[in-house]
Amino acid sequence: MAERLVDLSHEIEHGMVTYRGLPSPTISDWLSRDASKARYAPGTTFQIGKIELLANTGTYIDAPFHRYEDGRDVAGYALEAVADLTGVVVRANVGAKRAIDAARFTGGDVKGKAVLVHTGWDKHWRSETYSSGQHPFLTKDAAEYLARSGAMLVGIDSLNIDDDKDGTRPAHTILLGAGVAIVEHLTNLASLPDSGFRFFAVPPRVRGMGSFPVRAFARLGS
Question: What is the average pLDDT across 160-166?
Answer without folding.
Answer: 97
